[in-house]
């Protein structure tokens, strides 16, 4: 019997596609600037690798928490809200950072959206455990 994790699987797939795009952007810049490791003096490559790395720093953990929420029976509306917000946030972060290394509206949306997902997930999980213990 397979676990029913359709919602988490949907967002894992969408985020995997986004990660692929971010990876290709880094590879293209490495080829263009002939940089094997690091970023050399390429500002474009430095930004692209930070966008890629930031994604890798946050998304796996947030996806794991989405799976755990689905396994504990979180409602589909909440799961879709968090999954879609995470996807939109990560797209916004990538666009915003590529526009400017300083503050920008898309980057702000990306950071705030990611943190909202993180905090809501943390609250759900803590509340779930407290609700089962009490």
Automatic annotation (TrEMBL):
Stretches that traverse the bilayer? 12-31, 51-71, 109-130
Keyword Transmembrane attached: yes
Give this protein's Gene Ontology molecular function annotations: transferase activity
- Keywords, ordered alphabetically: Membrane, Transferase, Transmembrane, Transmembrane helix
What sections of the sequence does the record tag as coiled-coil?
Answer: none
Q: Where does it localize? A: Membrane
Q: Name one GO cellular component term.
A: membrane
Record-linked PANTHER family: GLUTATHIONE S-TRANSFERASE-RELATED, PTHR35814
What is the official name of this protein in its record? Glutathione S-transferase
Recorded source organism is Pseudidiomarina atlantica
């Amino acid at each position: 019997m397979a676990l029913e994790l359709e919602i988490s699987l949907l967002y894992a797939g969408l985020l995997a596609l986004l990660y692929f795009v971010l990876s290709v952007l880094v590879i293209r810049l490495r080829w263009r600037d002939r940089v094997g490791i690091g970023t050399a003096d390429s500002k474009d490559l430095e930004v692209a690798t930070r966008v890629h790395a930031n994604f890798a720093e946050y998304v796996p953990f947030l996806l794991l928490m989405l799976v755990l929420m689905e396994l504990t029976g979180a409602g589909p509306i909440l799961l879709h809200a968090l999954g879609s917000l995470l996807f939109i946030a990560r797209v916004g972060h990538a666009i915003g950072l590529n526009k400017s290394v300083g503050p920008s509206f898309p980057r702000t949306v990306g950071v705030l959206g990611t943190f909202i997902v993180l905090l809501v997930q943390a609250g759900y999980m803590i509340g779930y455990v407290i609700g089962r213990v009490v």
